[in-house]
């Protein structure tokens, strides 16, 4: 799966012919996703299958990667494994959205040339946790940070005040 994915595809046409593609996309190409990450290094691995069931074109997708998020408890780097499967029903308007089965999410097609990275980025953003936190209790790290800060304060208090000589003059 070392193939680089194309940027533009005609999703409806690919569904009509039953197209399948696998490949990788650099995370740094996904600008909105990169804003939520501590590092934009690495790739996302993608498998897509385009098909038409009756009059409705669909995209079945699978995205895997590991992202570096910031734990909101300890504010440190946290690896987050992504394994997302999705099914998108390609629609042209809101009336078609209403007719989609419950197991498919609507994806609005506005032109013949669809931006593949945008669609993948949307799915990844939807798959991120609202408040990323380590699965383990990272309060030990926080206690260590607090202890280090208290030690720094104690060391600064122990330093001799240069104006203490003036105190003796009074």
3D structure, described in words:
- Helix content is 32%, strand content 33%.
- It has 170 residues and is α+β, with helices and mostly antiparallel strands.
- It has one domain (8-135).
- Strands 2-3-4-5-6 form a 5-stranded mixed β-sheet. A two-stranded antiparallel sheet has the order 1-7.
- A hairpin with a 6-residue loop joins strand 4 and strand 5 (77-91).
- The chain is elongated and about 95 Å long.
- 15% of the residues are buried.
- The mean pLDDT is 87.
Summary, kept brief:
With 170 residues, the protein is an alpha+beta fold. The protein is 32% helix and 33% strand.
Index terms:
170 residues; alpha+beta; five-stranded mixed sheet
- Rg (CA only): 26 Å
Number of strands: 7
Mind describing the biggest β-sheet?
Answer: 5 strands, mixed
**Helical content band:** 25-40%
Total count of helical runs of at least 4 residues: 6
What average pLDDT do the residues reach?
87
Low-confidence segments, ≥5 residues, pLDDT <50? none
Secondary-structure map:
Blueprint: E1 8-9, H1 11-17, E2 20-26, H2 31-34, E3 43-53, E4 56-70, E5 77-91, H3 94-99, E6 105-108, E7 114-115, H4 116-127, H5 139-158, H6 164-169
Parallel strand pairs: 5-6
Antiparallel strand pairs: 1-7, 2-3, 3-4, 4-5
């Amino acid at each position: 799966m070392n193939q680089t994915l194309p940027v533009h595809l005609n999703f409806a046409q690919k569904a009509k012919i039953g197209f399948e593609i696998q490949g990788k996309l650099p995370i740094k190409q996904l600008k909105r996703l990169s804003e939520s990450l501590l590092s934009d290094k690495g790739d996302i691995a993608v498998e897509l299958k385009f098909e038409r069931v009756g009059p409705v074109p669909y995209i079945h997708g699978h995205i895997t990667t590991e992202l570096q998020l910031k734990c909101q408890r300890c504010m440190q780097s946290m690896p987050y494994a992504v394994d997302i499967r999705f099914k998108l029903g390609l629609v042209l308007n809101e009336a078609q959205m209403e007719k989609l089965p419950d197991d498919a999410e609507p994806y609005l097609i506005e032109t013949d040339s669809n931006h593949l990275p945008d669609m993948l980025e949307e799915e990844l953003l939807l798959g991120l946790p609202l408040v990323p936190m380590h699965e383990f209790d990272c309060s030990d790290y926080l206690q260590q940070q607090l202890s280090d800060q208290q030690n720094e304060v104690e060391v600064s208090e122990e330093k001799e005040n240069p104006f203490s000589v003036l105190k003796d003059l009074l």
